[in-house]
Design a protein that fits this description.
- With 738 residues, the protein is α+β, with helices and mostly antiparallel strands.
- Among the domains are: 38-247, no CATH class; 625-681, no CATH class; 685-726, no CATH class.
- Helix content is 37%, strand content 18%.
- It binds manganese (II) ion (MN).
Length: 738
């Protein structure tokens, strides 16, 4: 080679990336590919090639997580791997937490654009580490290891792996830090840093990394896990080239990505109807009382409106015009987070079952308006927990797509939304007694990956079994969580009644846990999820949203006495209006109507209750089959008062058979009564419009709502125009928080 360039035909990687962008810009096709020639010529060889690479990635993931991995990675598989083109476009992906596939793509492109080829150099055997949300990552907690793959001096691709860490050394222990308000609170930042050569992680890096986090053992295990998987992928790619030849590989990776792009267009045409789809979703940030930092003390509801346009050729565009501003909280999202969230959901609802790669990224147009929470344009903000906005925001996408799916007749594919993968009880402490005295434990219960899914248009939602960010969700075993968070053993895990959103088909239900502090003093404890407002876009076609979260903590309890005397203690909070905690404990009990809290200090025998999220419902609850309501009662999904009030079902409990029965005649009467009640209480559209409009014009909105609208109005002319037109407001209308 004449020069030191590592790209193809003596080109630099920057040239290759530039060419790739030009091709897609000019032709609309990936690398200008017009015809899938390899597939046409020999489809069997082409499909085998794809399957063999995919198989290699899946087995690399399975093997790596058993070679070395932290409990969170091993137990529920919080990792994934992907193979990238030289320009950083994913070709094939493993199973697992697919949210991260496009994120690593952005990191590779960052390294290319920054000229890493010259400095610090990209050589065979080099290892790069990234966890910077400004370079494609979701949050600092997700740590990516990326290695280049060379064939005879030429860079032919990249392998990348990502795991979610238990702790990254931020402002407090934990992995989604509610108290972070600026970049410097987010923990250790590795911005596409070279950390090794000749397939070995440098010692100085590992010494530094171990000292930067609170759980050094898990950090080191996960670094080894990601590197092991990447090396397996590299071996598989080199084997592939030995077998199929370099020319085939080079052509194949281009065509596989272009095919991925075309699959999206095909699916959109097949499953959706052209048009404009809109949905609204929200997330509450109740930090006026909670925050420590003066500038973070504010209450706000974040506006997350979405508009999706489907065109007749299968084009899909996603627009967040009207989104609220960013803020001194950890819920700000970079591009990587937005792409990741979108990507993992599209693979589940539209592009499942076939080639999944960055072709999907190229197929979808998007607008994340600058200066909003989804594109703040300020790297000094905190990006520690973008999930707070991402999770609700993308329920809007699910709902929009569900309207399309419904209209096309794919009623079983409808999903109006999903439970909030939150109330990850978080924090950590140090053992103050027992055999592990002096050791640090970290609270990272990842049972949050078992939430309720929304109902479809033909059946109830999945109970305790869904996470929007991981299609292979698994709530894990309590015993495993207790292994590394021994300072907060579980006292119970039980079905929590009335979490599921109501409907003809109800949303998925969920359970709640009760835990106590043991052998530990001065434990940091916090958590986050929806609370004061329904997260996401609610139910569909008359279905209700699921129950929101709340916070229940008991301090200075007499639990030790109860245990010593073998007396009963609370195992749940099935009916908050007649609380078990209040009845059975002597304690200082705190109940908060929201679930996102700053850290509090807990000590031995203090107790916490945490409920996981149900999913939204579909259709009018009065149309629900009575035998299903009966089953819900017998399964503890709903309580008697709720089925009476919402479903109009009159139920009787049979002490002998220990079963509920529905009284059909009384139920029919009660349902008629509910219909009359609806008729009497409901407003016409005009009345409702006027009622709501008065709140705007007469300044009757709360501070949190006023802040939300005022930001959206200022940040988007398009949204402002729409808002003023809809509410018939004067052109010079302004809204300010007093
Ligand atoms: Mn993560």
């Amino acid at each position: 080679m004449e020069n030191n360039n590592i790209g193809w035909q003596g080109k630099s990687l920057k040239q290759m990336l530039h060419e790739s962008d030009e091709y897609i810009g000019q032709t609309g096709n990936y690398y200008g590919i017009d015809r899938l020639s390899l597939k046409q010529k020999n489809p069997f060889r082409y499909e085998r090639a794809y399957a063999s690479l995919r198989g290699a990635l899946v087995s690399a993931r399975e093997t790596a997580l058993h070679v070395a991995a932290s409990p969170i990675v091993k137990e529920i598989g919080e990792l994934c791997f992907a193979l990238y083109s030289p320009e950083g476009d994913s070709i094939v992906v493993s199973t697992g937490i697919l949210v991260h596939v496009h994120t690593m793509s952005e990191a590779i492109k960052f390294m290319i654009q920054e000229g890493y080829e010259e400095d610090p150099g990209i050589n065979p055997g080099d290892i790069f580490l990234n966890n910077d949300p400004e370079c494609g990552n979701v949050h600092t907690t997700d740590v990516q290891t990326i290695i280049p793959i060379f064939w005879r001096g030429e860079l032919i691709g990249w392998a990348g792996g990502v795991t979610h860490q238990i702790d990254t050394g931020g402002i407090t222990p934990g992995h989604d830090l509610v108290a972070a308000v600026q970049r410097f609170d987010d923990g250790v930042y590795y911005t596409c840093r070279k950390i090794g050569s000749n397939d070995k992680i440098w010692k100085d890096h590992m010494i530094n990394a171990r000292r930067s986090v609170r759980t050094p053992l898990y950090w080191e295990l996960d670094e080894k896990c990601r590197l092991a998987g990447n090396l397996m992928i590299r071996d598989a790619v080199l084997d592939f080239i030995e077998k199929e030849g370099l020319d085939y590989y080079k052509q194949f990776i281009r065509e596989a990505i272009e095919e991925g792009r075309r699959i999206v267009l095909k699916r959109v045409k097949e499953r959706l109807i052209p048009g404009i789809y809109r949905a609204a979703s929200f997330f509450d940030v109740p930090f006026k009382e909670e925050a420590w930092q003066p500038r973070a003390k504010m209450n706000k509801i974040t506006n997350e409106p979405i508009e999706i346009i489907i065109d007749k050729d299968g084009g899909l565009s996603i627009d967040f015009e009207g989104a609220s501003g960013p803020g001194p909280n950890p819920m700000n999202c970079g591009k990587g987070a937005m792409e990741g969230g979108q990507w993992v959901l599209l693979t589940q609802i539209l592009i499942y079952g076939d080639k999944v790669n960055d072709g999907a990224y190229f197929a979808v147009k998007k607008n994340y308006p600058l200066g909003t929470w989804c594109n703040p344009g300020d790297p000094y903000l905190s990006y520690q927990s973008p999930w707070g906005n991402l999770i609700p925001a993308y329920t809007g996408m699910m709902k929009c797509l569900s309207f399309g799916l419904f209209s096309r007749g794919y009623r079983e594919e409808v999903v109006p939304g999903y439970g909030f993968t939150g109330d990850a009880i978080q924090g950590g402490g140090v053992y103050s007694s027992g055999p592990l005295k002096g050791d640090r434990w970290a609270l990272s219960t990842f049972e949050i990956s078992g939430q309720g899914l929304g109902a479809s248009a033909v059946r109830d939602g999945l109970d305790w079994g869904y996470a929007m960010w991981n299609p292979e969700s698994d709530l894990g075993d309590v015993e495993t969580w207790e292994l590394f968070q021994g300072g907060i053993p579980y006292l119970s895990r039980k079905i929590k009644p009335n979490t599921a959103g109501h409907g003809k088909f109800r949303g998925g239900a969920n359970y709640a846990g009760v835990a106590m502090i043991a052998n530990s003093e001065d434990v940091d404890f916090f958590g986050a999820r929806d609370g004061l407002s329904f997260h996401g876009s609610g139910g569909m076609h008359g279905g209700y949203p699921h129950a929101t979260g709340y916070r229940l903590i008991a301090k200075n309890t007499n639990l030790k006495e109860l245990i010593d005397n073998q007396e009963k203690y609370p195992l749940g909070d099935p009916d908050p209006s007649d609380g078990e905690f209040e009845r059975m404990l002597q304690a200082d009990i705190t109940r908060k109507p929201y679930a996102s809290i700053y850290p509090v200090t807990l000590n031995n025998y203090d107790m916490v209750h945490f409920a996981l999220s149900g999913g939204p419902g579909y259709g009018d609850p009065l149309e629900r089959q009575l035998d299903l309501i009966q089953k819900d009662l017998n399964d503890g999904i709903y309580t008697e008062d709720i089925v009476y009030n919402v479903y109009g079902a009159v139920a009787r409990y049979d002490e002998e058979t220990k079963n509920w029965a529905i009284e059909e005649v009384e139920t029919a009467e009660r349902q008629e009564e509910l219909k009359r009640e609806r008729e009497n209480k409901s407003m016409t559209y005009e009345e409702f419009w006027q009622y709501e409009r008065d709140k705007i014009t007469q300044n009757k909105l709360g501070e949190h709502i006023t802040r939300m609208y005022s930001e959206s109005i200022k940040l988007s002319d398009k949204w402002r125009k729409h808002f003023l037109e809809f509410w018939d407001l004067p052109k010079n209308f302004e809204m300010e928080v007093n």
